Amino acid sequence: VQLQASGGGLVQTGGSLRLSCVVSGGTFSSYDMGWFRHAPGKEREFVAAITRSGENTYYGNPVKGRFTISRDNVKSTVYLQMNSLKPEDTAIYYCGAGVFGDYVQIDYWGQGTLVTVSS
After folding, report:
1. d(Cα 16, Cα 94) in Å, to the nearest integer?
2. Do residues 19 and 27 lie in contact, with contact meaning Cβ atoms separated by under 8 Å?
3. What gap in Å lies between CA 66 and CA 85, rounded to an integer?
4. Strand pairing partners for 42?
5. Angle CA(38)–CA(108)–CA(102) in degrees, nearest 5?
6. Would you call 118 helix, strand, or coil by DSSP?
7. What span, in angstroms and rounded, lies between the C-alpha atoms of 106 and 32?
8. CA-CA distance, 50 to 99, in Å (whole number)?
9. DSSP calls for 60-116
10. Residues above pLDDT 70, as percent of the chain
11. In this structure, what are the phi and psi dihedrals at residue 89, rounded to the nearest 5 degrees?
12. Which of 35, 38, 66, 103 is the most buried (most CB within 10 A)?
């Protein structure tokens, strides 16, 4: 199973970006999907997750109300719409496939895409 993340870039404070993560080599609809981020000098942080059916979504506190996770099971793609971006959102964003429920288990990781928010 391979995950290919894209959509990162440089944006000004208050701007928007949409990240995409395409999954190949597996049954996309059998995985919950999530996004994490890793900023320099900080620990990896949970950003958002969506269950395999798309019925339930979860967000980390720093991004609630600004980010939206969604998925297209036909295109085997999960998205992260990021609005009202702040400099503290600067990080490498990784997508993961696995389980997000009573426990979190990431079976597969994407390679990461860099998001830089300028002040």
Report:
1. 17
2. no
3. 8
4. none
5. 85
6. strand
7. 9
8. 9
9. -GGGTTTEEEEEETTTTEEEEEE-S--GGG-EEEEEEEEEESSSEEEEEE---EEEE
10. 100
11. -85, -5
12. 35
Residue of 40, 24, 42 lying closest to 95 (CA atoms)? 24
Query: Exposed (0-12), middle (13-18) or buried (19+): which is 81, by Cβ within 10 Å?
Result: middle
| Cα separation, 81 vs 102, whole angstroms | 25
In one-letter notation, the amino acid at residue 82 is M
Ranges under pLDDT 70 in the chain: none
Render pLDDT for 67-97 as a digit per residue (tens, 0 to 9).
999 999 999 999 999 999 999 999 999 999 9
How many residues in total does the chain contain? Answer: 119
